[in-house]
Amino acid sequence: QPVIGVLALQGDVREHLLTLAECDVLARPVRRPEELAEVDGIVLPGGESTTMSRLLEVFELLEPLRLRLAEGLPAYGSCAGMIMLASKVLDGRADQHPLGAVDMTVRRNAFGRQVDSFEHDIDFAGIGSLHAVFIRAPWVESAGAGVEVLATVPESASAGEAAGRIVAVRQANVLATAFHPELTGDGRVHRLFTEMVRSA
Ligand code: GLN
């Protein structure tokens, strides 16, 4: 069974571990470089990307994680995790360190105050209709040619500017969603990721 780590510095670690536990993998929290070295895939949870980014430095995981991602370690980031995987962050903070695992620019807290949290059914490529929970979520402002768009905000959810915005992507072995499948009890996105790890 593949070993999948969940970065456990901050955020909804437990929810990811519980969802992964249903996917026939060994799911483990990762807080130390030695633990990172043992995983076949890594999940970056939802939470607060500036805090998580700072803790990555404090726990001396930033460079080891960058290195493993550069070597092709499969990764999945939800919400704050998506922000961390980006190559560029808009409305980020100076001490935010994008990992650059996906060639995309992400806007933090993109949906704004009016609708800073909302739920809507979206159409996810290869999965179908999925109930998506957005909590002070980012969106993908732009993505490079090598990035596959897996989901966008449907017109029916249209909060003005939000309609059509990219909210799920994949580039090679890296998956990212602006929403939180770990909060809905629907394991299909995690299953997609664990299949990516298995075939990597
Ligand atoms: N707004 C948060 C950030 O910028 C992300 C929110 C989330 O993960 N639910 O990191």
Itemize the secondary structure elements and their pairings.
Elements: E1 3-7, H1 13-21, E2 26-30, H2 33-37, E3 41-44, H3 49-58, H4 62-70, E4 75-78, H5 80-85, E5 86-90, E6 102-107, E7 117-124, E8 128-135, E9 139-143, E10 148-152, E11 166-171, E12 174-177, H6 188-199
Parallel strand pairs: 1-2, 1-3, 3-4, 4-12, 5-6
Antiparallel strand pairs: 6-9, 7-8, 10-11, 11-12
The structure holds glutamine.
Structure description:
Belongs to the glutaminase PdxT/SNO family. It holds the Pfam family SNO. InterPro entries: Class_I_gatase-like, PdxT/SNO, PdxT/SNO_CS. This is Pyridoxal 5'-phosphate synthase subunit PdxT. Its EC number is 4.3.3.6, 3.5.1.2. This protein has 200 residues and is of the alpha/beta class. The chain has a single domain (3-199), classed as Class I glutamine amidotransferase (GATase) domain (Rossmann fold, 3-Layer(aba) Sandwich). Helices cover 26% and strands 32% of the residues. It is built from 6 helices and 12 strands. The chain has helices at 13-21, 33-37, 49-58, 62-70, 80-85, 188-199; strands at 3-7, 26-30, 41-44, 75-78, 86-90, 102-107, 117-124, 128-135, 139-143, 148-152, 166-171, 174-177. Strands 2-1-3-4-12-11-10 form a 7-stranded mixed β-sheet. A 3-stranded mixed β-sheet has the order 5-6-9. A hairpin with a 3-residue loop joins strand 7 (117-124) and strand 8. The longest helix has 12 residues, at 188-199. The protein is globular. The model has no long low-confidence stretch (mean pLDDT 95). Glutamine is lined by residues 46-49, 79-80, 83, 108-109, 135-136.
